[in-house]
Amino acid sequence: MKITLALLCLGFLLAANAFAGPDVIIKQHAKDIRDQNNVRQGVAPPVVPVQPANPSVVTATPTASTPVQKSLAKLRADLVAIKPGAPVTPEQKQQIARDVQATAQGSKKPSYGTAAGLANELSAALAQKSLSDSALSRLLTDLAAVLNPANIQTAQMQAICSDIRAIFETNSLAHKDAVKIADAAKAIAAETHP
Prior knowledge:
By secondary structure, the chain is mostly helical. It has helices at 2-40, 67-80, 90-103, 112-128, 133-147, 154-169, 175-192.
């Protein structure tokens, strides 16, 4: 009797799972389209909170930063050091270019010239007006994706570069200057994307 009941329950679960497939795929596709439209309009992509696998277990040990996280923290500090209205020194631009190169962890790294091009555009924009903390975090997330594009499709890469442009346009940067930053990111993507 117990075996029959267990088999019956298993059958119901498998049937429910089989019928849930197409609607889940359609729902995910709709979310992807929504996110792409939001990027085109300059709206920040939704952040999905990461939940631990076992929420009842709390670990007290701090997690070590990855090399990408360390590089992004250094890049953030160097970008924040640029103050609006103050001249950007060549040393600051060089350091940003080195930070950009250090953030790339894959087999394909951007050349120093390409990284310097992005550093010049970023420093010029931030010398006009600094980014809010949330916009800077979004920019760094996008740059990390451009520099480490292992599992990113070409369409996603284009959306990321569009998001970089949108970040600066919503920060009141002239369209042509925001496009220059996005183009510099695309140049890096061309060198790093497999």
